[in-house]
Design a protein that fits this description.
Number of strands: 8
Shape: globular
Structural class: alpha+beta
Largest sheet: 8 strands, mixed
Number of domains: 2
Number of helices: 18
Strand content: 15-25%
Order of helices and strands: HHHHHHHHHHHHHEHHEEHEEHEHEE
Helix content: 40-55%
Length: 366
């Protein structure tokens, strides 16, 4: 692609004050492997496209193309994708890397030895761990590398070059680790916000959810250890699949609790309600309750911290079995009907915290 191509696509204006830097950035992106579709899809964040191309390691594939190359049926490929920690793709979404598809193609051999559920559980554990590694690496880049690189020019060629250089430092500790790490880095990629460069830490706006199994302590005393282990495994599987398939992120599982994050209030509320429905109808797992809160959180080493996290953790204790509670502002941001749950004394927040119960749109009940 050349200058005329960029101009015809609306990506380049030769009369703009920064035309020379813009052209250099576009040429560099094509040099490292960006396609015309890539440039158009990332036209508003071109410096970040360099990281996508570098981590992807080839063309981006649709679900149908991934099925054809891997030889896997759709549902098996979707299950593997969710187990690895990624949202369900739409039919036209180009989200699969060639390496990820090749890895998926090895499933039948692994399942023949270990069994399907054992392999998926192993993928969940590895995928969850690598997601934390990827998120921590992206945060370290945003805090320590991107501010200096962005200062080099206003268009972002320095950022693009730094992204490619960072991608070249990925450790090669095994095909699975490398493939999943690249895929999670694409999903975790974002730009620096706030004063991360000066403060030495990263904050982002997130919605945080806590889901807690009801009466699980009593159940753990009644069940044999083996049965308890199977129940907790099922709890983790249902919780992780529900969160990740809806675009959320499982931050950690703490015994009979799950802490997840989502990009917005609507997604967080939908995930919490779906989990409440799933566990309420489950034949073995106890019912669950949930609390959600939204605002600025501190991201550190793949975990989240701050008052928003504490609010969600305290709010869940005010919910009854099957209920999802949140501050009224969160319900309003989610665009969901809610009923007042009164004012509550939440540890660390005083005795006047207003909460509401979300109305499940699927049933019309709180």
């Amino acid at each position: 692609m050349n200058e005329r191509d960029f101009e015809s696509l609306g990506l380049y204006d030769p009369g703009a004050p920064d035309a020379a830097q813009r052209l250099a950035l576009l040429e560099y992106l094509v040099e490292v492997g960006a396609t015309q579709d890539d440039l158009l899809a990332y036209r508003d964040e071109l410096p970040g496209l360099a990281s996508v191309v570098a981590f992807r390691g080839g063309a981006a594939l649709t679900l149908a193309e991934a099925m054809d190359r891997s030889g896997l049926p759709e549902e098996k490929l979707r299950r593997f994708t969710r187990a690895a920690g990624f949202a369900d793709p739409g039919p036209e979404d180009r989200v699969f890397t060639e390496g990820f598809v090749n890895l998926a193609g090895t499933l039948p051999a692994a399942e023949a030895l270990f069994g399907e559920e054992a392999v998926l559980q192993l993928v969940r554990v590895i995928g969850s761990s690598i997601a934390r590694i990827a998120d921590a690496a992206v945060s370290a880049f945003l805090v320590n590398v991107e501010p200096a690189a962005r200062a080099e020019d206003p268009v972002g060629l320095g950022v693009a070059r730094a992204n490619v250089e960072a991608a070249g430092l990925l450790p090669t500790v095994g095909p699975m680790l490398e493939v999943l790490l690249r895929q999670h880095l694409i999903a975790a990629r974002r730009t620096v916000l706030g004063d991360a460069a000066d403060a030495g830490y990263e904050t982002q706006r997130r919605c945080v959810g806590f889901v807690d199994l009801v009466d699980s302590t009593e159940l753990s005393q009644r069940l044999p250890t083996r049965d308890l282990g199977a129940l907790l495994t099922e709890f983790e599987n249902v919780a992780a699949d529900t969160v990740t398939s809806s675009g959320g992120r499982v931050v950690k599982l703490i015994g009979d609790e799950i802490l997840f994050t989502a990009a917005d209030a609507r997604s967080a509320a939908a995930i919490a309600l779906e989990l409440a429905r799933a566990f309420g109808a489950h034949p073995v797992i106890p019912s669950a309750r949930a609390g959600i809160a939204c605002g600025e959180v501190l991201l550190r080493d793949g975990d989240v911290f701050g008052p928003v996290v504490s609010m969600a953790a305290r709010a869940v204790k005010a919910a009854a079995p099957g209920e999802v509670v949140a501050p009224p502002a969160v319900a309003a941001a989610a665009g969901m009907a809610a009923e007042s749950h009164g004012r509550h004394a939440l540890k660390g927040f005083g005795d006047g915290v207003e909460l509401c119960r979300l109305v499940d749109p699927a049933s019309g009940r709180v």
